[in-house]
Amino acid sequence: MGIRIEKKASTEVDYDVIVVGAGISGINCAYRLQTETPDAKIAIFEARGDVGGTWDLFKYPGVRSDSDLFTYGFAWEPWPYSTPIAEGDLIVSYMKDCIKKYDLGKYLNFHHRVRSCDWSSAGQRWTVEMESEGRIKTLTSRFVVMGSGYYNYESPLESDVPGLENFRGRVIHPQFWPADYDHAGQNMVVIGSGATAMTLIPNLAKTARHVTMLQRSPSYVVSIPNVGRPKTWAETLLPRRAALAWQRWFLMTFQWCVVLMCRHFPNFARAEFMKLVVASLPDGFAHDPHFTPRYTPWQQRVCVTPDGDLQKALGGPKPRAEVVTAHIRTVTEHGIELEGSRGGKGGDSTATTTLDDVDVIVTATGLRMDFIGGIPVTVDGGGRIDWSTRRCWHSAMLSDVPNLFFMIGYVDASWTAGADATAWILTRVYRHMRKQGVTSATPRVGARDAARLRDRRFWNLASNYREAADKGLPRYGDVAPWKPRDAPPRDLIYAKWGNVTRGLHFGVA
Fold it and tell me: Distance (Å, rounded) from C-alpha 483 to C-alpha 59?
């Protein structure tokens, strides 16, 4: 069936704000707009058929947040459950409850995939082209907010696994886990050592014949109490909503202090993290080499295991899972040949050179990063913007691109805290523009800032997927307002009360 083109005859702007994506960033943004700018006409367009974003897409066994939900949840409707780590289905259910409670569903438009956005300087508006049910629609808006995430929903990061094409068994990427797949009784190898692998191993081990986590290098893995977590003093003494609000701010501040410690006292931080790692491992399980990273904490993300479920799967007289630290020489028809491997419980155990009789290989090797979901953006019909040539303004807008906001979270704190800071800045800029009677706001690097700006990377992690995407990502500077966010409590205070007009140039239709 061909695609039909619908052309709009009206010259009026359809919306004041179009939000792309109905994940946690888009829903949070809609709430802030509804509350802070009630006169704005807004709409959310979502390519999929439901809310949730990441949590609606990922369906692999046990998929869960690797951030605590007390800070990952919405500030305006605190996470209502006692478990700080929760699986994807419960997160989606929580989001739907929030949407219903605050009547945000009226903004939602599903099965609308944004194909391009073009800014018109003459019309002072965005033209957004999207596909829905085989038709191409064009809508106009004063502002566009990209809550579409940071990775490619359609294509994963290609796995750099030599000889993978030789394998006769099944190869699965967690991003596209088959809905009808039963892994019971299978001998499985999960390649990777990040949050996805940490989630998969204990969940697969419940019914699989055996599961091996095959890693090239280890990550920091910290166990936290989840089910049956003891109540804090605030939960005991304060009204429930006040206790949850206090808990959110305490955790946000505490996590920030931990990150500061890791930045300024890396050796001390490494020693303290290793104490936690060693304490969480089963008796007799040597932490070296499988749980001794070569880097200091927060050069890559720290992995969290609720109630030590990964560590428990590795322990006992008959462990359901094991860790092998090695480089892959090649994948064969029914196994994996390794170089420099250490298996079993680590330490003095016998080295493993081959993983035999493998039924399934799971490539948990990362996501393909795609800034603002890979949506082509142009200005006045020009060429597609190369984001690597742009600088980030307050982690919310991009140099020389008018009225475009993007949602990005933290790498060392909860995503939602960063997205909420952007939402606050958006509402304040919107109100300022309405008050001043202007129609566009464009971040521009002035001559004074340009002379002293030095590049800072978009995402300060050493992860493989971040390195692979580096050339296509925008840059930060080291001078405000071009510096990255790096302190959630302070950033949120600034977003609500700080100067959000510096570096902006305003225009009129």
Answer: 36
CA–CA dist 496, 499 (Å, integer)? 9
Helices (H), 373-502: 415-436, 447-450, 464-469, 488-497
Structure tokens that stand for 354 in this block: 């081959």
Distance from the first to the final alpha carbon of the chain: 40
| CB of 161 closer than 8 Å to CB of 35 | no
Domain ranges of the chain: 4-154+368-507, 164-230+269-363
Task: Cis check for the bond before 38: say yes or no (omega within 30 of 0).
Answer: no
What are the distances in angstroms from CA 252 to CA 174, 195, 255, 290? Answer: 29, 20, 5, 30
Buried b (16+ CB within 10 A) or exposed e, 76-95: ebbbeeebbbbbbebbbebb
Contact 212, 324 (CB under 8 A): yes
b or e along 111-129 (b: 16 or more beta carbons within 10 Å of the residue's beta carbon)? ebbbeebbbeeeebbbbbb
Contacts of residue 239, defined as CB under 8 A and 6 or more positions apart, other chains included, come to: none
Render pLDDT for 205-242 as a digit per residue (tens, 0 to 9): 999 999 999 998 899 999 999 987 777 888 788 888 88
Q: Containing H/E element for 4?
A: strand 4-5
496 and 424 Cβ atoms separated by less than 8 Å: yes
Number of other CB atoms surrounding residue 57 within 10 Å: 17
Relative to beta strand 360-363, strand 187-191 is parallel
**Are both 4-154+368-507 and 164-230+269-363 of the same fold?**
yes
Query: What is the 3-state secondary structure of 299-354?
Result: CCCCEEEECCHHHHHHCCCCCCEEEEEEEEEEECCCCEEEEEEECCCCCCCCCCCE
Contact between 72 and 65 under an 8 Å Cβ cutoff? The reply is: yes
What kind of architecture, by CATH, is found in domain 4-154+368-507? 3-Layer(bba) Sandwich (3.50)
Query: What is the 8-class DSSP label of residue 190?
Result: E
* Long-range contacts formed by 88-93: CB under 8 A, 24+ apart: 88/52, 88/54, 88/55, 88/56, 88/58, 88/59, 88/63, 88/64, 89/55, 91/24, 91/52, 91/55, 91/65, 92/50, 92/51, 92/52, 92/55, 92/56
**Three-state secondary structure string covering 112-138:** CEEEEEEEECCCCEEEEEEEECCEEEE
Q: What is the pLDDT of residues 61-112, one digit of tens each?
A: 999 998 999 999 999 999 999 899 999 999 999 999 999 999 999 999 999 9
Quick one: pLDDT at residue 154?
Answer: 76
What is this structure's pTM? 0.91
> What are the CA-CA distances from residue 268 to residues 221, 254, 263, 278 (Å)?
17, 17, 10, 16
CATH number for the region 164-230+269-363 comes to 3.50.50.60
Contact 412, 296 (CB under 8 A): no
Plot region of 3 (φ>0 → left; ψ -120 to 50 → alpha; else → beta): beta
